[in-house]
Amino acid sequence: MSTREQLITSTRELLWERGYVGTSPKAVLQRAGVGQGSMYHHFSGKRDLALAAIRRTAEELRAKAEEQFTATGTALERISAYLQRERDVLKGCPVGRLTQDPDVMADPALRAPVDETFDWLRHRLAAVLKEGRDDGELNAAMNPAETASMVVAVLQGGYVLARAAHSTEPFQHAVAGVLGLLACQATTPSQ
Amino acid sequence: MSTREQLITSTRELLWERGYVGTSPKAVLQRAGVGQGSMYHHFSGKRDLALAAIRRTAEELRAKAEEQFTATGTALERISAYLQRERDVLKGCPVGRLTQDPDVMADPALRAPVDETFDWLRHRLAAVLKEGRDDGELNAAMNPAETASMVVAVLQGGYVLARAAHSTEPFQHAVAGVLGLLACQATTPSQ
DNA sequence: GTCTATATGTCGATAGAC
DNA sequence: GTCTATCGACATATAGAC
């Protein structure tokens, strides 16, 4: 991996673990195993490096989610697969985490990838839900946009509860809870 | 307000806005309008002051939630009132926010009030849901513990989405979405 | 391109005057 | 109790050698 890529990788890890405010250039350099000069050669500074890291993380998250959404199966099956896919629950969401960083939220360029990721996620999930509704799989009264926002919120909130408890249980419960309610929206029994 | 109380108040505000890592003693003192000596007289340091602030914030959150849970009305009405009560959505949850702070999560004493708050919230909501189920108001198949975790997760995740979008809309959608699904659990039509 | 040396400010805490 | 002075360490960036 090139020095530039190594710097981006280390920054992504540290942003996930400690956030923007809690991540120093020094810590990035130590983890990447390069000197200070390399960083200021490839990037103009901490902000510029974080921008590259955040964009990369957002791209990857979207690509991974799209895999679940375009898989085979009913709308409910795909959403269930998305919610239940393997996740590092106690580490939380590398994108959602950034919303708690005041310096990231205050900077339009740093916030943009975060905003776009959740906007995309909500619309993508709403499309899957609408598909299910139009196919007669889901209750006609179900509101796709609202339900999609709720599904994304359950994931993000599930991470919060899991971290607070130092346990994945609340996350699993929240996911099971939403899947239970969604199953009631199925016009044909899911079993 | 006493100097000690003023310090706790300023710390609570800054922890909410900037988190533990992003809050310096200097910033607390400036906001409180006191000198450095006052802080180290009343508290042993940043951690000790944060501990007092976090405990106070957790207490207040529980007291405010309990108001909604013990109000009059059906289980669904009380949960709906809790979800739709006035909130500073874009500021997020002052307790949930702390779960993204690595130094808070790594310190058992600082994490305890956060853990206890969400644990209490989930159990308290589960009790209200169970009550509604046992009274025949809600579907007998509804799992109170899972549904309670889901409701808390929707709130916490709603904050994340709202902050990412710089708009309360995703939060409102998520709440509307969960209320829509919960209404389907009512054994008698809610209208 | 990558390194080390250096600069300037802030962090978190201590010392001691009043 | 509250203040200012001071401390060693670290944050972020620049300079300049190789």
What are the defining features of this structure?
Tetracycline Repressor, domain 2; homodimer; 0% strand; mainly alpha; 70% helix; elongated; DNA-binding; 9 helices; 191 residues
Q: CATH homologous superfamily of the domain at 55-183 in chain A, by name?
A: Tetracycline Repressor, domain 2
Helix and strand string of chain A, N-terminal first? HHHHHHHHH
The CATH topology of the domain at 55-183 in chain A turns out to be Tetracycline Repressor, domain 2
The end-to-end span of chain A amounts to 48 Å
Write down the oligomeric state.
homodimer
Name of the top-level CATH class of the domain at 55-183 in chain A: Mainly Alpha
Q: Bin the helical content of chain A.
A: 55-70%
CATH architecture of the domain at 55-183 in chain A: Orthogonal Bundle
Biggest interface: A-B, 58 and 58 residues
Describe the sheet with the most strands of chain A.
none
* Shape label of chain A: elongated
Protein name (chains A, B): TetR/AcrR family transcriptional regulator
Organism (chains A, B): Streptomyces tropicalis
DNA-binding region (chains A, B): 24-43
Domain HTH tetR-type (chains A, B): 1-61
The gist of it:
The structure is a homodimer of 191-residue chains. Chain A is an all-alpha fold and 191 residues long. Chain A has helices at residues 3-18, 25-32, 36-42, 46-69, 75-84, 102-105, 108-134, 144-165, 169-183.
